[in-house]
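Hi team,

Below is the intake form for ASST-domain-containing protein from Lepraria neglecta. Please confirm the fields before the structure is written into the shared record.

FORM ID: S-0412
PROTEIN: ASST-domain-containing protein
ORGANISM: Lepraria neglecta
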Amino acid sequence: MPQPPGTLTAFQNPIWVGGKPWETNRNYHAHNLHTASYQGSQHLAYSKLSRSADGLNNTNANIIMNSHYEMVAELLKSHDLTELDPHEFELIDNGTKVIQLGRIRRPSDWPYGKDGVIGESVLQLVDIATGDVEFEWRSLDQVPLDESCHTYPDIDYFHLNSAAKDSEGDYIINGYHVCTIYKINGTDGSIIWRLGGKKSDFTMLDGYELMRMHHIRIRPLDSIKLPTALRAQVTDTTHLALSIFDNAVIRPSAGSSASIVVLLDLEARTGQVVERYVQPDGMFGALFGSVQFLPNGDRFIGWGGQRSISQYTQNNELVFHAELADAATPTFSYRAFIGSWVGLPTTNPDVFSYSWTCTWQTTMYASWNGATEVRSWRFFGGVSASGPFKLAVAVNKVGFETRAVASFFASHAYVEGVGWDGALLGRSEIVATRVPRPDLAAYCNEFRCDQKINWTEADWFQHCRSETLNILGIVAVQAVLE
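The structure came back. Fields below:
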């Protein structure tokens, strides 16, 4: 099913859910939602992925949004790309340029191709302001088909899923279907070395087998856990540290997928795993995955197709684990990240007002998609759409949607969002209170109605009229049907 992007609080309460807020048709997936620095401030970036007519993935665009959830940049496919690839969309150079991926479909007699076609992976460095492609690398120019470790029909012989630029201006990239990490020259695109796969230039001292991998990132040497015996030998000129999400799907002996850190000795051409954090439930994830280094030294891991996230200390202590969905739910998370975000939507808060009957107390629900600065809600109830209105109840914000119960029936309601400094942040529209028809009230209770019922507008009374009996401090009302 289509998956919109979304952000969560530390306790799994959504902050913002949805695709482009200005769209009504959201029949697409969103990949790799993350915060990024752009034009001097924090933004959200993600890839929008739809399905092409032949059923293959086809990314429409890479999107950058500001704190108001307004699109400020949209990068489309360039040159002769058949499609953009959603696996990487990384802003670099102070947010002026972006690393993005693409594919070119070509005819081929490769035995594992699909209908006589293969997909060539493409890496691009793009200037965001001008749209100019400043660097481009194509897999077939450097990596022949016989390097693929793929053994079943698929258009994608290489499957480029990760790319990072190093301090020398070169690129570290990963090909999932060639089971190899490459360092490629940032000027002419030639291969400097290979790690893993059929033609590895490195020997793993611990015998660790690198094959199916995601989310390769270059890490400062002082951010990794080095064995005591190596600390005096490791320097920035002789060694390189890479964090890797190891899917390990065709290596049952691995026990589970894992996040690992590999230390490479660039002179001796050797490597070893110096950190490894396993999936807590011992599960393998063939799809996706990510690892993030947190400021306190912890590792935050998204388990991709396993629909879960974890946080480990560098001492391998599991301090947090959460399931994003059960196995029966057709959803996934490509990558997961933790961090700060201030969302200031230009929309108004939403309120839903409900009462079991026209004489029952009114229950109100408030939410504000994307708003992070709301501390509390003020709920107001009135006798008509034009008022007068009275403050019914004020409560602290609880999760994405906050429920509050008035002590009286109100035929109409609105809500105000209040910030941490007590300032008014936004006010909803005035809405009519929903009351179920008397013959349907049996499917409801004092807070809501059964969601399994296919409710229509005709099933609701929307025009109960409130008549104030006492307006001196405490409001008691009687309601009749108009």
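SUMMARY LINE: Confidence is low (pLDDT under 50) at residues 468-482.

Thanks, M.
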